[in-house]
Amino acid sequence: MLRDAIVEGDLAPGEIIRDGELAERVGLSRTPVREALARLADEGLVETKPHAYTRVTPLVVRDVRDAYVVVRAMHELAVRAAVPVLTERHIEAMRAANARFAAALDAGDVPAALAADDELHDVPVAAAGNRAVAATIERYVPLIRRLERLRFGSLPGRRSIALHDRLINACAARDTEAAVAATAEIWATLGDLLDKETS
What we know:
Largest sheet: 2 strands, antiparallel
Distance between the termini: 31 Å
Mean pLDDT: 88
Number of strands: 2
Order of helices and strands: HHHEEHHHHHH
Keywords: DNA-binding, Transcription, Transcription regulation
Domain HTH gntR-type: 1-59
Pfam family, one: FCD
Structural class: mainly alpha
Organism: Actinoallomurus liliacearum
Low-confidence stretches: none
Shape: elongated
Strand order of the largest sheet: 1-2
Protein name: GntR family transcriptional regulator
Strand content: under 5%
């Protein structure tokens, strides 16, 4: 819940988080709230100065770029490992997610589009079965998503739908190199957007 609030901008960069107030608001004791804050500190989303404050970290473009490079590499690695083991069920799940992505774009629903995009890319990550890859993606995607939500406000055009189709078709054909290339191009599009929005 805290991660979502930070990523979606409900808790702004620099905003102070008081664990007692938060625990009361969500109906928990302070211990699980403090544990959640410690995990978010490890992920770079909050920072704590003992006996002084816990706050949402300021948005640092360099950290976002670093996270982007790592997440892109992990997705390419996951696709490379997943293509040989993907089933028709996996392919259909990717197609359904891309259809939801397109519908969300048509409706101008950025959160739904981002969720559908995540669902699509999660299929090869799960199929690859590499827990280190999945954990690395889970850790660093929130930094990227935070910048997307704070700075972009919308998604790049419908080109993403076609790129997703290329990825899905390459996966269906068991063409590992084409699938990795499509994944690289998808992430390069986000990299271009990062460069444009933060230059």
